[in-house]
Amino acid sequence: MVQTYSSNEIKIQIKDFELLEISSGKKKFLRYFFSNKATVIMFICNHCPYVKHINTELIHLANDFLPKGISFLAINSNDVKKYPEDSPENMIKVYHKLGYPFPYFFDETQEVAKYYCAKCTPEFFIFSGDGNLCYHGQLDDSRPGNDVPVTGSDVRNVLQNILKGNKIHPIVKLSYGCNIKWKT
Fold first, then answer.
1. Per the structure, how many domains does the chain have?
2. What is residue 138's predicted lDDT score, i.e. its pLDDT?
3. The pairing of beta strand 18-21 with beta strand 133-137
4. CA 158 to chain centre
5. N or C end of the chain, less CB within 10 A?
6. What angle do CA 102, 107, 110 make, to 5 degrees?
7. What SS3 state is found at 59?
8. Three-class secondary structure of residue 6 per DSSP
């Protein structure tokens, strides 16, 4: 497991892509899942111990905010030839086993990860309803083995402020986890 930090770039806006949505087995446009309140885009995968460490809180967080009109989209951009555990066939197994309440997309060409400058899993991007970046970085300070409880506090705080109508200037709080497994 290679510990990699997320990028500190904050220049991006939300962008639509067409990706395989694994629960349906069909290609779908991301824009159909965007919210006019806020959209959370998460780069995750199946095999990463950092993602496994936070999976329960991801589900809890989504279940807390989906009813409030905030959308969550998970994207796996890893090279499945090198990491077959992250294949769409295995993504669907994890999706059902964990009961993800959000769509889980496969970024086969890795163009989505490149556009968002994603570097690690897990890595979070929160966009306002108008598509502007509000937050880029970590879920919270918890990592495997550091004995910090998984609370989702960084993402949760931004989402609560969005719902309160508070103006948010882009916040970057670097995440770290496994590097995205790029194709060679």
1. 1
2. 97
3. unpaired
4. 15
5. C
6. 140
7. helix
8. coil
Determine if the pTM surpasses 0.90: yes
Q: Which of 138, 160, 141 is nearest to 149 (CA)?
A: 141
Q: Helices (DSSP H) in 40-175: which residue ranges?
A: 49-65, 88-98, 111-116, 153-163
Q: Is the pLDDT of residue 2 over 60?
A: no
Per-residue pLDDT tens digits for 73-120: 999 999 999 999 999 999 999 999 999 999 999 999 999 999 999 999
Judge whether 25 lies within some domain: no
- Note down the domain range covering 108: 3-10+44-179
The CA distance from 147 to 137, in Å, is 20
**23 within some domain:** no
CATH assignment of the domain containing 152: 3.40.30.10
Cross-strand pairs, 125: 41, 136
173 falls within a domain: yes
